Amino acid sequence: MGPAEYLAGRTSRNARVELVSAGMAADCAKVYLVHDAETSVLEASPDEFPYVIRETTEKARLASEVLGEDLAQHIPVPLDEWEADGVSCALFELLLPISNGRLKRFIQLRKIIPPVLKWLRNVAEVDRGINKEAQSCLRALFECPVERLRGPAQTALARIEAGALVPRSTVMHGDLWIGNVLIDSVGERDFVVIDWRGSNVDGFPIFDLIKFAESARLGRGYLRAELAAHAEILACDVQDTRTYLLAALGYIWSHLGLFPPDRFAMMAETNLSTLDAALNG
Q: What is the predicted pLDDT for the residue at 177?
């Protein structure tokens, strides 16, 4: 199917449609710019995975409900949703990616990094209660091919079993890198976070912070201060931010889906190195 079939009856005759992305993986959406009275963004599920867009918008709505109106303003909601021959589609407002131009990107990052970090702290304050999956997620890493995770996972599990840490649940986006942080073209919000399909409203804190810090290239001191702030919110020792990161990695390892194991291994190694460098640097 093409954009004309996806959009049937939803635009004027003069509308012009431009392909932006056909997705970098089998389950990624096709994305089009729709130039009509106003420019909007059409997302259509791939034929092989016809419900991807519906699943993503449902996850985004659930996160919005849990986080509340103030925090949810940074989660885009579709202008319209429908199915075209069994393929889920949605129309969104136009949002802009961070520029690839060195100077403009530098300026944009300086502007959005502080509010994104503040938003993450506020998300961590939305306490979802005791995380009952933390121990099983840590145990999952015992069978993980990333050998470096096994020892720390055992240490983290021992702390929980000894009562030194009572792990909390928070909303976890699951892929909060700079490519999923967009700029509001109208300027009403500092930033918008997209792609909530892999989110978990009863997930783990810290993972999103580490992912964002890596892609935004936060300095060690900057990240260390954020880890300390999160530890205070979570009422835990700053070293236990490692436990939260490991539990999140265990959760992801247990729910890989189409995510290649070798990519998970690389990501997990990098995540742990980033956190350790900030804590110990």
A: 96
What single-letter DSSP state applies at residue 236?
S
Query: Do 81 and 109 lie in a common domain?
Result: no
Residue type, position 100, single letter: N
- Residue among 105, 118, 75, 115 at smallest CA distance from 217: 105
Lowest mean pLDDT across 180-189, 192-201, 242-251: 180-189
Q: How far is it, in rounded angstroms, from Cα 96 to Cα 170?
A: 28
Tell which of 59, 75, 93 closes a domain: 93
From the list 11, 110, 18, 119, the residue with the least C-alpha distance to 63 is 119
Spatial separation of the C-alpha atoms in residues 224 and 257, rounded to whole Å: 32
Confidence tier at 14 by pLDDT (50, 70, 90): confident
Q: Are strands 200-203 and 170-172 parallel, antiparallel or unpaired?
A: antiparallel
- What is the helix (H) or strand (E) element at residue 184, kind and residue range? strand 181-184
pTM: 0.94
Site of tokens 């993986």: 25
Any alpha helices (H) in the chain, and if so which ranges? 3-6, 52-67, 69-72, 102-124, 134-140, 147-161, 207-216, 220-234, 241-254, 261-280
DSSP state letter for 159:
H
pLDDT at 7: 87
Render pLDDT for 15-37 as a digit per residue (tens, 0 to 9): 899 998 866 555 678 999 999 98
Do 176 and 153 fall into the same domain?
Answer: yes
Task: Label residue 259 by pLDDT band (50, 70, 90).
Answer: confident
Residues of the domain holding 31 = 3-93
CB 165 within 8 A of CB 134: no
